[in-house]
Amino acid sequence: MPPMAKAKQTAEHDEHDHADHDHDHDHGDDDGEAVVAVIVQNQEKILANQHAIHANQKHLITLVAGQKTIQANQKTILANQKAIQGNQKLLQQIVANQAKIQ
After folding, report:
1. How far apart are CA 37 and CA 102, in angstroms?
2. CA–CA separation, 75 vs 68, rounded Å?
3. I need a labelling partner for 40 at 20 to 30 A (CA). Which of 24, 65, 80, 88 fits?
4. Torsions phi, psi of 89, nearest 5?
5. Kind and range of the H or E run holding 58
6. C-alpha span between 86 and 95 (Å, rounded)
7. Based on the number of CB atoms within 10 Å of its own CB, is 63 exposed (0-12), middle (13-18) or buried (19 or more)?
8. Helix (H) and strand (E) counts for the chain?
9. Are 1 and 9 within 8 A, CB to CB?
10. Distances (CA, A) of 36 to 25, 47, 80
11. Which residues touch 9 (CB under 8 Å, ≥6 apart)?
12. How far is Cα 53 from Cα 60, in angstroms, rounded to an integer?
């Protein structure tokens, strides 16, 4: 088909009324309501998951705080162990000196 004839046919097609045609489209509300119901269910699930995430984040904050406390306690224990080692060496010297005195 020549380009002009094709353009004319397209223009005519655009101008005619589509109301006379029988289309096989189902425009029932049942499908739309079902889609809306699924969307609402998904939003409820998302909201529930967000609540669970929020609760988990609070729990995680508590765990992290506990870990920081444990780390601080471990540093204190390490410092105390070093002090004990130093005291043990000092005690050994005292015992050795007492043996010399006797």
Report:
1. 95
2. 11
3. 24
4. -65, -40
5. helix 29-101
6. 14
7. exposed
8. 2, 0
9. yes
10. 19, 16, 65
11. 1
12. 10
Token duo for residue 46: 């998302």
Residue holding tokens 């269910």?
41
Mean pLDDT of the chain: 84
Instruction: Give the list of residues 6+ apart from residue 1 with CB closer than 8 angstroms, or none.
Output: 9
Instruction: Please list the ranges in the chain whose pLDDT falls under 70.
Output: 1-29
Q: What are phi and psi of 12, to 5 degrees?
A: -65, -40
- SS3 per residue for 18-52: HHHCCCCCCCCHHHHHHHHHHHHHHHHHHHHHHHH
pLDDT computed for residue 30 by the predictor: 79
For 43, the token pair is 């939003």
Alpha-carbon gap, residue 92 to 36, rounded angstroms: 82
